[in-house]
Specification:
The chain is of the alpha/beta class. Helix content is 40%, strand content 15%. It folds into two domains: 5-134, NAD(P)-binding Rossmann-like Domain (Rossmann fold, 3-Layer(aba) Sandwich); 136-165 and 194-255 and 270-297, UDP-galactose 4-epimerase, domain 1 (Alpha-Beta Complex). A seven-stranded parallel beta sheet has the order 3-2-1-4-5-6-9, with helices on both faces. Helix 4 runs parallel beside helix 5. Bound molecules: NADP nicotinamide-adenine-dinucleotide phosphate. Residues 10, 12-16, 34-36, 53-56, 74-77, 79, 102, 104, 134, 136-137, 140 line the site of NADP nicotinamide-adenine-dinucleotide phosphate. Pfam families: NmrA.
């Protein structure tokens, strides 16, 4: 059966916010899961169905799950694996039929990462799973690294000369909406990447061209990267997680390109260029260097 009422966990997050939008466009009843329902309702100024949902507060789960037949499940950064699996068990107990889980590329083979163990747990539960194993989101380039582009006109990640098959979070969300509304995707796993794998010097060239000012790839060492991130008061655990992710790229394990997004959406995936153009305002410095920036762009 195709889902009628879907709970989107992390419904305000990078992917979740777009899943909410896509499902609404498909006339599916969406429940937006957030830890701060009041402020989300006020910000959206709408009557949309926003529910309090917190993985670490099981007392919020019952109301969030009431009458739901499918879930878009996201493990937010910092949430323990066990809290996610306990929630899956609760969902299964109250009759949720389908769980679409946002996982990461390679999670099927890498037994060391929480995504692998969460996938295994979902597979052994009574729900029908669909796994979306996504590559690195283009949106990280503004959410995490935008400050480097704005203030220093550089991309500052320790990925060496390794390639990454950037996927746009909006495409991941569009795929989520497709698989949530068509039960032929139950019990399937998809590897979601963009159309090409790029080195970060190539990404910097895309930025330069799209923003019409020179953006370089700084190619920092790992210690230099750690120093800059810690100077921004980011938690060490988060910085080390990033080092792990960029080391994966550095060693050549992040560049695999698949055709799953194109097949599922019936159109090519968005490119990094599409992303930079659409998010251009996030990268514009308040006072751009006059010599290299053309204001009409
Ligand atoms: N970034 C990448 O390149 C990438 C690639 C592949 C896979 N992934 C996976 O994608 C997942 C993250 O997805 P995302 O980037 O869309 O998420 P995100 O933007 O980091 O959003 C997380 C959202 O989760 C909510 N949240 C935080 N703590 C919570 C809790 N205790 N209970 C319930 N909700 C909580 C927050 O919303 P509220 O404040 O509104 O509650 C927040 O907006 C991770 O599992 C990551 O491994 C990421």
């Amino acid at each position: 059966m195709t889902a009628q009422r879907v709970l989107v966990t992390a419904g305000t997050g990078t992917v979740g916010q777009h899943v909410v939008r896509e499902l609404r466009d498909d006339d599916i009843e969406v429940r937006v899961g957030t830890r701060r329902p009041q402020s989300v309702r006020e910000a959206n100024d709408s009557d949309e169905c926003v529910v309090e949902f917190d993985f670490v507060r099981p007392e919020t789960w019952g109301a969030a799950l009431d009458g739901v037949d499918a879930i878009f499940l996201v493990r937010p950064p910092g949430v323990e694996q066990g809290q996610v699996t306990a929630f899956v068990d609760a969902a299964s107990r109250v009759g949720v039929e389908h769980v679409v889980y946002l996982s990461t590329l390679g999670a099927d083979k890498n037994v060391l990462i929480p995504h692998h163990r969460i996938e295994s747990h979902i597979q052994q539960s009574a729900v029908r799973p669909t796994f979306l194993r996504a590559s690195f989101f283009s949106q990280n380039l503004h959410e995490v690294h935008g400050q480097d582009v704005v203030e220093h006109h550089e991309i500052f990640v320790p990925a060496g000369t390794g390639e990454t098959s950037f996927v746009d979070a909006r495409d991941v969300a569009a795929v989520a909406a497709v698989v949530l509304t068509d039960d032929r995707h139950d019990k399937q796993a998809y590897d979601l990447t963009g159309p090409e794998a790029l080195r970060y010097d190539e990404v910097a060239a895309v930025f330069s061209d799209a923003l019409n000012r020179r953006i370089t790839y700084a190619e920092p060492s790992i210690p230099a990267f750690i120093r800059r991130m810690l100077s921004r008061d980011l938690p060490l655990s988060y910085v080390l997680l990033m080092v792990g992710i960029y080391s994966t790229a550095r060693f050549g394990f992040a560049g695999r390109v698949t055709g799953d997004v194109g097949r599922l959406l019936g159109r090519p995936p968005r490119t990094v260029r599409d992303y930079v153009e659409d998010y251009r305002d996030r990268f514009e410095p308040a006072n751009p260097p006059a010599a290299t920036h053309s204001p009409e762009r």
